[in-house]
Amino acid sequence: VRRDTADTPSSLIYGLSSKARCIAPVHAETEKDRFFVGSHGLNEENEIHLIEVDTQAGPGNISCISIFGHPHEIWAISPSHSDASLLFTCYNTGTDYKASLWRTPSSGQGQVQALEHVLELPGHAGAIRNVLWDTHVDDQVISLDENNVHVWQLSNGASEAKPVRTFGGLKNLLVGTLSPNHAHQMATAHEGTIKGWDFRQGTSTYTIEKAHAAVVRDLDFNPNRAYVLASAGDDMAVKYWDIRNTKEPLKVQSNAHHHWVWTVKHNKLHDQLVITSSSDNNVKLWNVPSISSALNSKDTHAVSSSRRGDATDEERHTL
């Protein structure tokens, strides 16, 4: 990632020898800014790099802490929120897709180290999209494949996984996200439709048909506004929804990018900051106070709707 301005040119660059398609923060590491990056080579040995960004040492200070060997191309990485040594990967073996929990070695640098394989989540159909750690219920994880959502309970020090329930029956399920504000609540997207779920019973709580004019690629709940959900899609738009009233979005950023929008994420501390990435090869940081907790008003829907399609309350920085 490059960060350059006219006044303070700087850069933050880390290179891998292979292609990569996923990066994930090490949530359980609270003292340092660390990330896992996974390579994506079908016919080659793959690796997971643990990298650290040291903001105290000045701009551009990034280093590799460890490199771990991984047997197959990595499609998603999901680190534990409570144990920095545990992470799930979703990967393609060349014949099928799998989701496994791994444990990183306690120490060691330099040479490529071996990951300890802890367990595999069985019983999926087609591509496994991701594994989500439930931050409300200890040792509970949720996996998503092309059609269903699977709830699992980990036990015996995360060495065993017991299936709890499976639900969905969707076509081309692509993405899901858990609510950080309400236990047992999540949202999924299949094709152009967004659905809310209570995964205690596996029941649908709301449906937004034709949420985007094309495929919905990503979803993210606002961490500080309990009912605001962001969505991004192949129609090049980013939308913000109040899941209590889904007839129309709170706000639409039309043509946020010049091609498909692959990801949308809120800043966990300053929720008016939203980052997006796209297959137009751009990453953009947006300032959108009208959908954030900074807007302390009961009439949020009216204020936001009046600005639909208007970027006057947004500052955009291309990274």
Question: Which features would summarize this protein structure in a list?
Answer:
single chain; 319 residues; mainly beta; five-stranded mixed beta sheet; four-stranded antiparallel beta sheet; 1 helix; 48% strand; globular; disordered N terminus
Summarize the structure.
With 319 residues, the chain is an all-beta fold. The protein contains one helix and 27 strands.
Succession of helices and strands: EEEEEEEEEEEEEEEEEEEEEEEEEEHE
- State the distance separating the first and last CA atoms: 7 Å
Beta-strand segment tally: 27
Shape: globular
Please bin the fraction of helical residues: under 10%
Strand order of the largest sheet: 3-4-5-6-10
Radius of gyration: 20 Å
For the residues shown, what is the average pLDDT? Answer: 88
The unreliable regions are: 1-9, 297-312
Give an overview of the whole structure.
The chain is mostly beta strands and 319 residues long. It has one helix spanning 300-305, and strands at 2-3, 10-11, 20-25, 33-39, 46-53, 62-70, 73-79, 86-92, 97-103, 113-114, 116-120, 128-133, 140-145, 149-155, 160-167, 173-178, 185-190, 193-198, 203-208, 216-221, 228-233, 238-242, 251-253, 261-266, 273-278, 283-287, 316-318. A hairpin with an 8-residue loop joins strand 5 (46-53) and strand 6. The longest helix has 6 residues, at 300-305. The protein starts with a strand and ends with a strand. Mean pLDDT is 88; it is low at 1-9 and 297-312.
